[in-house]
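Q: Mind making up any chain with structure tokens?
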Amino acid sequence: MQNTKNIEFVITGCGRSGTTYVSELLQKAGIKCGHESVFEVTGPAKSESQYRADSSWFCAPFLIDLPQNVKVLHVVRNPAKVVSSFHRIGLCADTMWIQFSKGKTPLEFMAKENYRLAKFKKHFRRYAYVKNHRKLLEKYTTCFKEKLEVGRLWQYWYQWNEMIEGQLSKMPNESLVVRLEDIDSRLDEVTTFFGIQGYVEPVKPANLKKGYRKRTISWVEPGEEVFRLADYYGYSEEEVRSQMK
């Protein structure tokens, strides 16, 4: 891939698992790191990258094509937290406009007297965001075979991380798996992995989707494969269930 010519590091995992946090951490440490700049939702960017690193969950399907010298950081997060975060956005909802339409059809929602062009632009961007992401999941996972929204999200978390694990197992590249919840406590190990010398101050986490309205979530039981993979990453069944609220 021509666009990875200057890339030394790739950070990936599921969405809503800390890729933004890691990119900010590396930028602070002096490593020019893009966020979904080299690997976009539509695939690898066509232009040559000027970054040393890219932090993007979109790169997961393309890991196997990376040059052997590129190091890969795989960031994971409690699956229930990922499900809850993407549920708020409506990533796997039955309709792609559910996040802003409040149960109405788009035309019904837009017929409100106080609907303005500015709101239309904002809502269209959200609709397009969900649509592009769903295309990605439909191409690389079977999560939409699940009947219920939360069931689809459980499968997304499981299948996406399994895809990453499967590719890394076939690659000679150096890699490291770290839980988002442990990054700050393992900061020395993480910075050593990136060849960073000296102390790096943790950055303040930011909720980039705080503008999305809260949605009531109806939890469904995850499959045993979800608990099994979560346990592999160090999340007990009790820890997962504690976030199902």
